[in-house]
Every structure is written in C-alpha cells, then in structure tokens.
Design goal:
190 residues; alpha+beta; 7-stranded mixed sheet; GNAT_dom; Acyl_CoA_acyltransferase; N-acetyltransferase
Length: 190
C-alpha cells in the first residue's frame, strides 16, 4: 500500500468581526438550511462534494449512524443551490464551551470556479456565529474553527484566509493513499 504525506491546517475565528464576507455571486444562488435530518441527502452531499478529493471517513456510515449524527443538537447543514440544483454545502457542529466547527464545506465539482464557494463559506460562518440563536440551551459561539488539508481543492486555504480565518496549527501525517471514490463507484478515474 502506498502512503502519502498529508498536511492538515487548522484555522479559526475568535470573534464575529473576524468574518470577511465574500460578495454574492451573480445569478440565482440561494443558501437554505436543510432542517429535516435526511441521511440520504446528507450522504449525497458528502459523496458528491468530497468524491474527487478523497473524502472517505463517512462512506461506511450506516443509515442509523447518519441519522444519529444529523439529529444531534447544534448540527446543521446549509446547502447552496444554483438555479434550484444543489451546488455545495457547509456542515456545522456545536462543540463544548461555545465552540462551533465547520466540519465539512465544499462544492460539487461542476459548480467550482463560479464564486459560489466564498459566498457559501461566508454564509456558513455567519450561521456558525449565530448557531445558539437557533438551538436553545447551547452556549453562545465564542470560536469558529475548521481544518483543511493538502488533499482539498487548490483554492481552499486561500478562501478560508480571505474570509478571515487565521492559522493556529499545522500537522503532517502519513496516510494510506486511496483512490478517489467519486459520488458512486467509478465516477472518477484517477
């Protein structure tokens, strides 16, 4: 089995004023919260956005595991639509002491390069900052963080930094190299 070195960068915002919003893209782009927990829809988004950049950690999740995750207080999925078609998503997860992680963020490959990503990240980050407003009992957000890695899209780090995220940790680890799973087996050839 071949191994590759993967660099993971962790970034954060520590105040809502850290957010530097992107401009709204032209056209009919809308961002909507997926309020009804749907393992099928969430798995579709996960596989469609991450299939070409080797997101594999949730591919083996059962329907019950997806549902359990999605029904947790403070877990939200915000979906960008371009003319009614899902274009990408951001998943938020409340953690202890007012911390919110942007667990997943990205666009389906056909929608990249259309200025939707910066807008979606801006919107999702703003929703991380006001997460407690929608979830009684959660502590107000004090910190929003995320991680990206060298397997992610070439513009990921730049987008995060342009939105006001600051680097706070870098790690390099060896990982087994896996084929791009695509949204379904055989969708992408390496």
């Amino acid at each position: 089995m071949t191994h590759i070195a993967v660099t993971t960068w962790s970034l954060e915002q520590t105040a809502p004023t850290d957010l530097l919003p992107a401009s709204t893209p032209e056209g009919d782009v809308r961002i909507v919260r997926s309020e009804v927990p749907s393992p099928e829809f969430s798995r579709f988004l996960y596989a469609s956005v991450g299939g070409d950049i080797r997101w594999t950690d949730r591919l083996g999740w059962s329907h019950a595991r997806w549902r359990e995750h999605l029904e947790r207080p403070g877990v939200e999925t915000w979906v960008a639509y371009d003319r009614g078609t899902p274009a990408g998503y951001v998943e938020l997860e409340a953690q202890d002491d007012g911390v919110v992680e942007i667990v997943y963020f990205g666009l389906i490959p056909a929608f990249r390069g259309r200025r939707i990503g910066g807008h979606l990240l801006s919107y999702g980050t703003a929703r991380a900052w006001d997460l407690a407003d929608r979830w009684p009992g959660l502590a107000p957000t004090k910190r929003v963080w995320l991680h990206t890695c060298s397997k992610d899209g070439e513009h990921a780090m730049d987008n995060y930094q342009r939105r006001g995220f600051k680097l706070f940790d870098t790690k390099v680890e060896e990982e087994a190299e896996v084929a791009n799973p695509g949204p379904w087996p055989g969708a992408y050839a390496d």
